[in-house]
Predict the 3D structure of the following.
Amino acid sequence: MSSIYTLLSANVQRILTHYKSTKCYNYYRNLSSRDFLNDVYCRTKLKCKSKKLPQDVNPRGVFACNELDLSEVQVYGFDYDYTLAHYKPSLEHLLYKLGRDMLVEKYKYPAEISKLEYKPHFAVRGLHYDIEKGLLLKLDSFLQIQFGAVYRGLTPVSTEEVLKLYKNRIIPIAYVEDDTRVHKENRSKMVHLADLFSVPEMGLLCNVAEHFIRNHIDYHPEILFLDVKNSVQSCHPIMHKIVAQNLEEYIRPNTDLKKYFKLLQENDKKLFLVTNSPYHFVNAGMEMLVGHDWREYFDVVIVNANKPKFFTEVSRPIRVFDKNANTHIWEKVTSLEKGTIYYEGTVKQLQDLTGWSGHQVLYFGDHPYSDLADVTLEHGWRTGAIINELTHEINTLNTRTFKENANWLQMLTQLIEDHQGYKDPEALEVISEWMDERDMLRNATKGVFNKQFGSVFRTYHNPTYFSRRLFRFADIYTSNIRNLLNYSLTHTFYPRRGVMPHEYGSYFV
C-alpha cells in the first residue's frame, strides 16, 4: 500500500485514511488512477453544485481600500468629467469621429480612414500600448501579460508570438514605467491608458492600425500613436462646444447630485471644484445637472487646472477667470472668493489661501494618477475614485452563470493542484482534461466583461495594473457620487480584512 500513498497528494491520503475504516476503502483500492480521479472530480463537482452561491454585490455600494472616517472630513473636492458629469456612449462616438476626421484633414492620412466606424465594445480602460511594437495589451499588478488580451490592430496576437516578442510573460518595470533616476533616453516604451477619454483613442488607434496591416501599408507604431493622441486631444475644444449645445444627447442626468451638495452645505462642509475642462463647458453641464445656481454650492471653482501639474507644480499663479470676456485676468490673486471663477494655479496656493489641508480634505476624481496619486502621496488628502465601469462589472459579477463558473473555477484549480503529483499516463491525461476545462472557464469568466480584454479590475486571477494603482491611491471608490447619499456624513468606511495566501487555509476549510 505504500506505493499508492506515495502517488497520492496529501488531500487524497486523508480521504483514503478515512476510507480504511469503511467498506469504501476496498472499492477505491481497486480503482485505476483514471477512475479514481474521475470519481474525485465528480464528487468535487457535486460539492460545488451544493454550495450556496455568494450574495449579490450592491452596484451602488461604496467600497473601502483604506479606513475613512467621514466625520473628520470638512472639505469636499470634485473633478468634473466622469466624476460629476457622466457621459453617454455618444460622447465616445463623437470623439472618435472628430479624431478620425482630424487624422485625414490635418495629418493627411488615407481618405479610406474616414470609412472606419467606431467599435464601442472593443477596448477597456487601463490597457497599455507598446509604442515600440505597436501592441495594445493588458498587464496585471505583477507586470505580467494576460495572454489572450494582446492585440495588433483589431487582431489578437498568439501567445507564441507574444513570448517571441517579449522573451518572457513578465515585462521589466523600466519598460513599463518611467524611472526618474535614469536619463530621458531610457524612458518606458509603454503608455498606460488610464482614463475614459482614452477609450475612443484606443478604438481609433486599433482601427487605423488594422487598416494599414490589411492593406500592407507600412507605418511606425509610435508615430501612429502620437498622431491619434494629438488628433483626439486637439478635438476636445470642438467636442466641448458640441456637447455644451446638445447636453441631453451626451450627458446622463443625475438628479441626486444637487441633493448631495445640499446635504454637504447644510452640514457646514466646504465644497470646491478643480477641473481641466473650460468654464463654458463645465457651466453648461452643471446647469443641466444641478441648476443655474450650481456655483452657490461651491466655495472655490477652478477651471483649466491642467492636472496633474496643478498638483505637482508650485510656481504657476492662480488667476481670476472673467466668464463674460471668456479670458483670465492678469491681477494677482490674494484670496479666493465664493462666486468667482479661477483659472490654473496650484494645489499649494489652494491650500495656502484656504487653510484646507491634510485628512480634512476628501477629493473625488476618476483618474488614479492625475486626480488622486499626488494629493494623497504629497499632501495627505483623503481620496475617492469614481469608476463608471463599476456598475457593469458588479452587474456581471451578480449573474448566476458568473457565480457558478467562478465557484467551479476555484474548486477545479484546487483539484488540479492537489492531484498534480500523479505521473502515470492515464492520470496525466485526466489532469490535462481538467486543465483544458480550467482554460475554458477562465476565458468564459473573462469574456462576460469584455470579449477582448475582460474585466477592468482583474486578469484571470490577479488584479490588473490599473486596479492595483486604484486601490493604492483611493481610500474609497464607487460608481457615482450619488451613492454617498446612502451613508451618513459621520459614516466610517472599513476595508474588509483581506485574506493573504498563507491565511487561506485557516479562513476557508
Remarks:
- Residues 425-447 form the longest helix (23 residues).
- Residues 140 and 464 are 4 Å apart (CA to CA).
- Residues 89-245 form one domain.
- The first strand starts at residue 63 and ends at 64.
